[in-house]
Each structure stands twice: as structure tokens, then as C-alpha cells.
């Protein structure tokens, strides 16, 4: 499972960070999913390795503009490129309304079916061949969701000794069983794939949270998850100065929760534009990392635009951009 | 009068060119106007010398997304920066509808008054202290306008000999007359500014056209204009291959018109993304210039993102970016 940050700034873009978007590839680069789509996401994609032609679904955490205003441009550009594959847009009903009105009032039509799916419907569940997705309600100024991605259809290992014990020699039936298909032999015996194969590892699961001032809402979802991607808009002192209204999290809050939930990997993102990079920047982005590290003993990263991460099959997290390790 | 291209690509952004937007300063940098606002315009402004806090008015040529999808982000970012000055949005009614619905469905409100002004109202006319603006209907797939900017309140020269002949010696009344104000003397005589001052040069006038397949519609407006900024989406051969549907102009078409209208300065923009820059790019952006130069004998420029131009008081046009001269 790989993912690339296309935007890591809260509210407004900066010269170094765009507003929120994340490209997630459950198995290599195609197909891929987009989580949130701030203005300029299609521009960021011009510099990343994901084509809008292979985009399978878009998940929108909440209706705020820094998570949605890139949708009209991305959707119409895909159309200008001649996309014909259907695209799922999993979003609140208001985002569907925004898109419909925008297309109507800009003389735009799409060359492909856009399937609106209500992200706030009770019991939300989405899946394709590669992943299944559920969500969790968060606490923000508007309804907001975290999306939980769990990989599907893991590779199976044949129990070869067991097969031979039952007199089933290598052949096409082995291949079918390994693909997860049940097989009926010429003599009428039914072989169930689950009986003759095993899945030698656990399914990778990661949580991509939207804006949220209460990470503990993710406690249940964190059980069995290997990674949390969560906003840390402020350091704790700034958060207290700003007051509760924006309903964002501090680095400390998220780190404490991740530690308590025993999440092995944590990536912070969605930083207030006040935090600068480089040796002379004040307040400095490193303060967010320093604060989080005081409370969290797992593997911590601060996201940067275009950084790509891989959640390996052994459940370790690798940042493929060396500078950020 | 200065202007900076913030986007020069047609339809979709490329890595070198954003979609359409132009910053126009009638007198130095503040206040300034924006003509069109493709997605990512607020990002481009982070690299230009114009602050959204000094933006006076936005003019939208037509409703297409590559000219409008940057509006919601730009408007809400100005709000997050705490803007309180009113802002005029001169645009088709459909763009007003797009903005209203988008703000409603993204939990956005603006910290300043946004004045919607219908750009397609008969007899459209807008002015502030620095410029007056009219428009011209063009020919495109949707209603589209060119905006004609004429500077106002030119500096006056006192007719000092005439004043002295009438016994009016230097003093505060001279200053008032020079500002264009009429003055009543203590003895009751009324001095009209127009009688005692002269304006030693003509007002600069430039046309910023939207998408258009018939430049001759600008014939009347070109009389007395010193510069035309017009789209040249294709070379003539590509235009013929594409067919009439997109309703864009070729470089040849615009150049022929500008020559016939005796326009002294022409800047082409809004290039199809098929045209590449650099020695190995095919088809090459230089083909558009070569084609235009065959038909036009005035001063020609091809716009690039972030190039700034100045229309001088002597009516000559200077490109302040040296590489493009």
C-alpha cells in the first residue's frame, strides 16, 4: 500500500505546501484513490506519478473548501483527457450539490459516469478488488469522516502437503485454489480454497482522518490498524491561544492518542501555514515533531508535499523520500 | 499600466503554464484588478507581487472552468486573511450562481462584501478612480466578453502663463486646479479646471479579450486602443484540423486582424497545451509566433506565466521580463 501527499497545508496554500489531498494506491500505482481534493490537486498530479485516468474513487472527508475546491478542475480535466471509466465520488451530499451546480454553471459535461455516493449514509461501506473502506465520524465544525482502508484479496499460499495427502497432484486446480476459487474435481469432490490454502499475513489497514479535534473517536478503528494519518494543525500552545472554535488537533493531542492506542505508525499533516521550514523559520515546523515525539514512541513522520510512503507487507512504514526519514 | 500573466494555458494546466488569469494594475501595484481566475490563481499570486488584500475588482470573460474555477479558493483565502474592503465581481449571472452555491455548500462565509455585477447587462460600464471599463461581446461557445480598460484622471498640467495673465498668482488654488477641481476665488470669480489646465497625453487603453473565434468583433474597440491581449489557442493548420467547434482563434487570424486594425501592440496567450517550449518540443510554441509575425508588423509578444508588461505613457509596450523580449 503506497500513498503520496499532494497537499499538507491547512486552510490556505503556501509556496511549499498545497491544501489537502492524498493519493493512495492499494497495490502499486493503478488503480488509485484520492482522499480529499483541495484547489490545485490536478496541478500537483502533473508532478506526481498518478494519472487521473487510473483514478478509481475520490473520498472526501468533509465539505470545507481546502478539501474540495480542486474537484471541478480535476473532474473536467479528466473529461478533456477523454476518460470513459466510471468514477466514484464518496462525499457529503453538499459536495455533490457543489459539483452539480458548478458543472451546470460552467458549461461543463463529463465524458464518463460520475457516481455520487453519500459518505455520511449509516453503515457506509465501499469496496473494490483491492480494498474495503469504512468510515468513522469525527468532531469538527461540520460533519467530518476518517476513512479506514483495509486491503482485500491477499495472496494465498497453497497447503501443498495437505493437497498431496488427499491425492491432488499439481495442475490447473492448484492455480484455481490459490486464486481463492473453489474447485470441483472430475470425480465430483468439491475442494474449498479456504481448506487448501492459507493467507500467511494480516491485511494491512490504515486510517486517513479528516479535520478533527478529538482523536479518541478513532479508538475502535485503531484496533488492528497499522497506521494513522491525522491532522496536527497546531502545537499545543498555539491551539490553546487560538481557542476551541476551529476544532483542530494539536500535535500533542494526536501523539498522546496514538501512543494510548498503540498505533505503530503515525503521519501528521494539515499544518497551519504559520509553521515555517528551514533554519530561520519561526514558528518552525520542527516544533510539531518535537512536541509529538514527547508523547509518542512509535514511528513518526511529518508529511511534506510529494513525499511517498509505503506500508510494507511486514507492516513497517517506509518513507520513499529519503530526506524525510 | 502594468499587467502580469498568472496563467497562459487553454483548458488544462501544464507544468509551465497555469490556466487563465491576468493581474492588471492601472497605476502601479495597488489597487489592481484580476481578469479571469482559473484554478490555482491564488497559488500563482503567492509567487507574484500582488496581494489579494489590494484587489479591487475581478472581471470574468465567460463561465468556462479554466477561467473561473479559481474563484472560490481566492475569495475564501482573502477572507481568511481578514479582508474587509468590498470586492466587485463582474461576471455572467451563472458565475454568480456558481459562487453562491459553492460558498453555501462548503460552510464558507466572506469577511467582506462581494458585489456581484452582471457583465452581460446592456450598456455595461464600470469605473473607479483609476480606470473605466467597458466590454465587447465576442463569439464563443458561451457568451464571452472582451474588457476594454481606459485610464482615468490623467495628470494635468497648469497653464501657468494663462493663470498669470488673469492675475492669479501661485497658491492653493493652483493645486486645486491641477487636481481637476474648479475653484471659486475670494472675489467671486469661478475658475474652471478645464480652462486653466491641459492633459498633455492621451489616455492609455488596452483590450483584454476572452475566448473568441472572431477577432473582427473588436474592430470598433480597437480604434484608439494601444494594445490587444487575445487568445491564440492554435496555429492555423491545427485550427483547421480541430474544426470550428471549440470556437477559438488561430495566431494567423488574430495577427491579421491586429494588422488590419493597426493595433501597435499585440500579446497572444491561452495556448493549447499541445504546444511545447524548448528546443525539442513538437509542436513548438514558437510556431505560433512565427505564424503571427507573417501577418503582423506591430510589436508582438507571446505571454508566459509571470511575465509582467508595462504600457508606458508614451504608448510603447515593455516586457519587464527580459527573456521574453
Describe this structure in words.
The structure is a homodimer of 325-residue chains. Chain A is α/β, with parallel strands linked by helices. Chain A has 2 domains: 277 residues, 4-Layer Sandwich (Metallo-beta-lactamase, Chain A), CATH 3.60.15; 42 residues, no CATH class. The first copy, chain A, contains 11 helices and 19 strands. An 8-stranded mixed beta sheet of chain A has the order 6-5-4-3-2-1-18-19. In chain A, strands 7-8-9-14-15-16-17 form a 7-stranded mixed beta sheet, with helices on one face. The radius of gyration of chain A is 22 Å and the shape is globular. The mean pLDDT of chain A is 95. Chains A and B meet through α3 and α4 of A and α2 and α3 of B.
Amino acid at each position: 500500500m503506497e500513498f503520496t501527499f499532494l497537499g499538507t497545508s491547512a486552510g490556505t496554500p503556501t509556496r511549499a505546501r498545497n491544501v489537502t489531498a492524498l493519493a493512495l494506491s492499494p497495490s502499486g500505482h493503478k488503480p488509485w484513490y484520492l482522499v480529499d481534493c483541495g484547489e490545485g490537486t490536478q496541478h500537483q498530479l502533473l508532478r506526481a506519478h498518478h494519472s487521473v485516468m487510473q483514478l478509481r474513487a475520490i473520498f472526501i472527508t468533509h465539505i470545507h473548501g481546502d478539501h474540495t475546491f480542486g474537484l471541478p478542475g480535476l473532474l473536467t480535466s479528466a473529461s478533456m483527457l477523454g476518460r470513459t471509466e466510471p468514477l466514484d465520488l464518496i462525499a457529503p451530499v453538499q459536495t455533490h450539490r457543489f459539483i452539480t451546480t458548478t458543472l451546470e454553471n460552467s458549461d461543463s459535461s463529463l465524458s464518463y459516469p460520475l457516481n455520487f455516493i453519500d459518505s455520511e449514509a449509516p453503515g457506509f461501506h465501499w469496496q473494490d478488488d483491492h480494498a474495503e473502506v469504512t468510515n468513522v465520524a469525527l468532531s469538527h465544525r461540520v460533519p467530518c469522516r476518517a476513512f479506514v482502508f483495509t486491503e482485500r484479496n491477499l495472496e494465498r499460499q497453497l497447503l501443498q502437503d495437505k493437497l498431496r495427502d488427499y491425492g491432488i497432484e499439481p495442475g490447473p486446480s492448484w492455480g484455481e485454489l490459490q486464486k481463492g476459487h473453489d474447485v470441483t474435481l472430475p470425480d465430483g469432490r468439491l475442494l474449498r480454497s479456504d481448506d487448501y490454502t492459507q493467507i500467511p499475513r494480516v491485511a494491512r489497514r490504515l486510517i486517513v482522518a479528516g479535520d478533527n479535534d478529538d482523536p479518541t473517536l478513532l479508538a475502535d478503528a485503531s484496533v488492528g490498524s497499522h497506521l494513522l494519518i491525522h491532522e496536527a494543525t497546531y502545537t499545543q500552545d498555539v491551539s490553546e491561544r487560538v481557542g476551541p472554535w476551529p476544532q483542530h488537533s494539536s500535535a500533542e493531542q494526536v501523539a498522546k492518542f496514538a501512543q494510548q492506542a498503540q498505533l505503530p505508525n503515525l503521519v501528521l499533516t494539515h499544518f497551519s501555514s504559520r509553521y515555517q521550514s528551514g533554519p530561520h523559520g519561526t514558528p518552525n515546523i520542527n516544533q510539531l515533531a518535537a512536541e509529538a515525539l514527547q508523547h509518542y514512541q512509535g514511528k513518526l513522520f511529518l508529511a511534506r508535499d510529494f513525499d511517498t510512503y509505503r506500508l510494507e507487507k511486514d507492516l513497517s512504514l517506509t518513507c520513499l523520500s529519503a530526506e524525510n526519514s
